[in-house]
What we know:
Elements: H1 22-38, H2 43-49, H3 55-62, H4 79-92, H5 94-114, H6 117-129, E1 134-137, E2 153-157, E3 160-171, E4 178-185, E5 188-195, E6 201-205, E7 217-227, E8 232-237, H7 239-274, E9 276-277, E10 280-281, H8 286-314, H9 320-344, H10 356-368, H11 373-385
Parallel strand pairs: 1-4
Antiparallel strand pairs: 2-3, 3-7, 4-5, 5-8, 6-7, 9-10
Helix pairs in contact: 1-4, 4-5, 4-7, 5-6, 5-7, 7-8, 7-9, 7-10, 8-9, 9-10, 9-11
The chain binds flavin-adenine dinucleotide.
Amino acid sequence: MAGxxxxxxxxxxxxxxxxxxxxxxxxxQRARDFVEAHVLDELATWYADEMLxxxxxxxxxxxxxxxxxxxxxxxxxxxxxxxxxMLELEAADSGVRSLASVHSSLAMHAVSRFxxxxxxxxxxPGMSSGDVLGCFALTEPDxxxxxxxxxxxxxxxxxxxxxxxxKRWVTNGGIxxxxxxxxxxxxxxxxxxxxxxxxxxxxxxxxxxxxxxxSVSSELAxxxxxxxxxxxxxxxxxxxxxLTCLDEARYGIAWGAMGAARTCFAAALDHALARRQFGKQxxxxxxxxxxxxxxxxxxxxxxxxxxxxxxxxxxxxLRPEQVSVGxxxxxxxxxxxxxxxxxxxxxxxxxxxxxxxxxxxxxxxVLTYEGTEEVHLLAIGRALTGLDAFA
Length: 391
Ligand SMILES: Cc1cc2nc3c(=O)[nH]c(=O)nc-3n(C[C@H](O)[C@H](O)[C@H](O)COP(=O)(O)OP(=O)(O)OC[C@H]3O[C@@H](n4cnc5c(N)ncnc54)[C@H](O)[C@@H]3O)c2cc1C
C-alpha cells in the first residue's frame, strides 16, 4: 500500500498515501490481495507457457477490478484508484495489467462510450463480471503507428455489415469473446463489435514472444465476416474515437509501469541487503547505494507524475499530450530501473525466479504498444511546437 507519513516504506519514499483517500487505498489493497491470491504463484508457469488463463478475467471481475473507469458499470472509484489498481497488477506482471486494461479501458470503454444503449445493456454487465472478455483490434500487419493506412474494410449488405481484413497483435484475442474492430467504411474509420465466434472471424495465436509472455497475443482474420447492423458503434466514427480509448489505457500504463519498476527496485534492495561480497553487504558499497538511490528517485518521480495525471483526469483536464508524457516518461523510467536492478542482482538477475528480467523484457513491449516511444515523443513535440512531424 502507498505509504503514509508515519510509516517508512523504501519503495514509496515520498509517501504517496498522504495524498490518497480511503477508497483509493482500499482499491489498491484489493488489487494487491488479488495478485497474491490469484497471480503470483502461477506467473512463472503462465510465462513459460506463453499464456494467461481465461478464468483470470472472471476472477478479476469477481474481485470488482474490471470496468472501474466505465460509468454505470463499476463502483466509480475515480481515476487515481483505477491507476493504483493498474500499478498493483503490473507489479505482478505487465501481461496481467494488459489483460485488464485492454478489456476495461479499450473494449469496455469503446462500448460504453460509442455503442447504442441497447448494445451497452447487452454487453457491459457480462464484461463487468468478466464473463464476457473483450479485446481491441486496431493494428494490422501493414498498419501499426499509422492506423490511417489500415486495409480492413466494412461494407453494408442489406441491414448487416460485412468485414474483410487482417488484424494483428490483438491482446486477449485467443481467449476473448468479442473484439472492438476498427475498419474503413464509407471512407471513414469506424468501430464495430465483432463476436469472435462469428462466421468469417478466425483468431490465430502469435507465439514465440520474448516479451509479455504471460499474455495472449493474436491475429484476427476477417473473411466476409457478417455482423448485424446494431454491432456498428454509432459514436465510433473517425480515428479520434479509437484514440480516445487508447488515451484511457495509456493513462493506466503510466501507473502500471511504476508497478513493474517498484518490484524491480524492491528485488534489488532486498538482494543488496542480503548478499555479501568483499566481507560486507552489497548495500554498504557507495556505488550500490547510488544505484538504489537513483532507482528510488526515478520511481518516486514516476509515481508522483502518475498521481498528478490522475488528479488532472479527475478534474476533467487531462490532455492527450499529458498522457503521452506519463506513458513515455514512466515506461522509460521503469526500463531504466529494471536495467539497474538487474545489475544489482548480478547473475541472479537474469533468472525467471527473480522477476527483474521478466519485467525488463515486458517493458520493451509496453514501450512499443499503445503508441511507440517515438510516436509519443512526436505527440509531445507537436504540442510544444505546434508543428506536426508525424508524416
Ligand atoms: C505485446 C503487444 C500487444 C499489443 N496489443 C495490441 C492490441 O491489443 N490491439 C492493437 O490494435 N494493437 C496492439 N499492439 C500493436 C501495437 O500497438 C503496435 O505494435 C504499435 O502501434 C507499433 O506498431 P508496429 O509494431 O507496426 O511498428 P511500426 O509502426 O512499424 O514502427 C516501427 C518503428 O518505427 C517508428 N516509427 C513509425 N513511424 C514513425 C514516425 N513517423 N517517425 C519516427 N519513427 C516512426 C516506430 O516508433 C517504431 O520504432 C500490441 C503490440 C504488442 C507488441
